[in-house]
Specification:
Layout: H1 2-9, E1 27-31, H2 40-48, E2 53-60, H3 63-72, E3 79-86, H4 89-99, E4 119-122, H5 127-161
Antiparallel strand pairs: 1-3, 1-4, 2-3
Protein name: Activator of basal transcription 1
Main location: nucleus
Subcellular location: Nucleus, Nucleolus
């Protein structure tokens, strides 16, 4: 495992014909499931061993159900999916191949012992695509809420008139 880590971290910058260094292309991996009690800092710690990380985004679980559960007892936030950006595309590909379908933690006493990484490298995917998707979902949620409010107002006025 240590030899593989050395291979992934010992990467030289790309040099063009003119001798100027261009920034390496970034790679993004998709985590379809996030184990319980795993947060952004732990994700950074795990994937930071393999290479330099850029941005990390974890999608929170259904906020309505977590609010109700929080009232009952203090629980950790649950995440459903996530995206991790690596500074180097090649490292992201190697990490996705190396960790996909492997155990999250090898210690038996760990809370993540029974969980397996499900990782996919997203080719031709940019961080802006993720922002666009999240903005679209937010706008759709707002529009749905507005439609529900209008329907409730319409029902209220029709019931008052009769």
């Amino acid at each position: 495992m240590t030899q593989e880590n050395n291979e992934l971290t010992d990467v030289e910058p790309i040099v063009t014909n003119q001798g100027s260094k261009r920034p390496p292309k970034r790679g993004i991996i998709y985590l379809s499931t996030i184990p319980p009690y795993m947060n952004v800092s732990k994700i950074r710690e795990v994937f930071g061993e393999y290479g330099q990380l850029g941005r990390v985004y974890l999608q929170l679980a259904d906020p309505e159900s977590t609010l109700e559960k929080k009232k009952k007892r203090n629980i950790a936030k649950k995440f459903t999916e996530g995206w991790v950006e690596f500074e180097r595309k090649s490292i992201a590909k190697k990490v996705a191949g190396l960790l996909n379908n492997t155990q999250v933690n090898n210690r038996k006493k760990s809370k993540q012992y029974d969980y397996i990484w499900n990782i996919k490298y997203l080719s031709n995917f940019k961080w802006t695509h993720l922002h666009e998707r999240l903005a679209y979902e937010k706008a759709a949620r707002r529009q749905k809420l507005r439609a529900e409010i209008q329907l409730a107002k319409k029902r209220l006025t029709s019931s008052q008139q009769t």
